Input
Amino acid sequence: MGIALEVKQLTKTYNNGKKALEGVDLSVPEGSFFALLGPNGAGKSSLINILADTVKPSSGQVTFLGKDLFTERRWCKKQLGVVPQEIAFDPFFAPRDILKIMSGMFGVKPDMKWIDELLERLELSEHAKKNARQLSGGMRRRLLVAQALVHKPKVVILDEPTAGVDVELRKRLWGFMRELNAAGTTILLTTHYLEEAEELCDHVAIINQGKLLTSQSMKGLLDNVGSSSLVLEYPEERIVSTDIEQKLADFSPRSQGNKVTLCLKKTDGHTNFNDAYQAALATFGEATSVNIQDEDLEDVFLRITHENQT
Amino acid sequence: MNWYGCWTLYSRESRRFLNVKMQTIVAPALTAIMYLIVFRYAMGARSVPDLDVPYFEFLIPGLVMMAMMQNAFANTSSSIMVGKLMNMQIFLMMAPLSAFEVTLAFLGAAVTRAAIVAVVLLLVLVPFSDMHIEHVWMILFYGVCGSIIMGGMGMIGGMWSKTFDDMALLNNFIIMPLTFLSGVFYSVKQLPESWQAVNHFNPFFYLIDGFRHGFLNVGDTDPSQAVLIVSLATVTTMFACWQLWRTGWRLKD
Ligand SMILES: Nc1ncnc2c1ncn2[C@@H]1O[C@H](COP(=O)(O)OP(=O)(O)OP(=O)(O)O)[C@@H](O)[C@H]1O
Ligand SMILES: [Mg+2]
Output
């Protein structure tokens, strides 16, 4: 399996001096379903917009399907479809015409069968002839997705494609993305719905403050870096003071009301459950319930982004 | 070259004004007719001093050229402005279209709109006079170059403007004065010497005068000099549009 996208030491400094990307390296395998995660302002859109050619890079290199993205733009653009984060639409035309125009601008004679299928799959058929101004926010976003797919790109990049799309449609949209991926399309997306990313994506990268924190397979991230935690419930509220925090530093304790959470570590296939439980018993007394929770993507995400902030 | 993409963008830009014919074609025709009626009765059968043509006939080519220029400007500038406000120009940037292709498509559509407006105005206005065409090449040359120059200025203005207010500023303080003071309503020979000299620095003056020359076979400028100046202005405008779009001036962060 080849590499669809290889980003090397990419930086972006905006005119106001804001450093949005500070030397990001990223490698997206061909055929992968790749999640690019990060808190607000991390630099995800800056990265995507540079790939889409709507923002100029400050320095760095990008290899796209084996070619230099910045010198062979025209060829690369034909293989790439991008859904921008910000809603944009042509107020003069109806969705079907917008799709025909978009296809034409990519130098591809509109394939009406494909356009109708896209409208159908993105549930826009009913609105195909309305002026784009009459569409709701979620419909406009789905139209953006259709626009990105109209020239049948090999690589699709989606910047929060499901923001503002309702639950049911979101599920179906993901179903469609999965089919495209199964048919060989490489998909890179950003989203703040971490459960969805966990369920769908096979690769994940986390960036924060313009820097890459981790990039690996989803399974690898959840298995290795990600561990499980011990959740203890008490009859009354428990507070983690700085004192306790120091004493239990190995377990990075957190409390929430009458719940205390201790992080467990895995060494040689064994978790340090016993140590954690003993320590908790000594510090907080008898618990009313004890549970072990596997860390999910959200926990890993929060842990990794917080570790790197301090 | 992505010819098909360029053609698609050209037809999009043309359909945009064809979809609103009332605003883009009927309205300019109506304005020109009103000017003509007003001047017809105000000036009567008087003729333009030194040129020996009825004032009324003198006015028609100037009005037509002015309408062409204004429409060419409006077509490109409004498209880019709306594109900016709707965040729509990103589709042009994401598509495999070079700056050259984008410029070609935008200017092509501007010329198309100007030509349609010109034909409509001539069909409406000429029956009131007994004008005829003297030099087809002049009419075509100045008509096309004038539309390209103004279409190009519209592109640059659209890229420069951050808001519709900026655009209005540009329109009211640069475009309108230059067009009104370019000899649509008077022959420069009617002006005092010093103003005649100033007029020769107004590029629009050559366009209007040359275009009129094609109909009336009289003019204030030396055609060979005017052709040179207008060609140069056309090429410069096109080059500026191409380069500005290529660098993403005021469009790309
Ligand atoms: N055009 C711009 N000019 C100046 N600064 C900008 C510009 N666009 C983004 N930034 C800044 O760059 C940083 C990264 O922004 P970016 O949009 O890439 O974040 P993001 O990861 O996409 O966030 P979100 O999840 O909110 O979409 C932010 O601090 C933002 O304020
Ligand atoms: Mg973003």
Q: What stands out?
A: The radius of gyration of chain B is 18 Å.
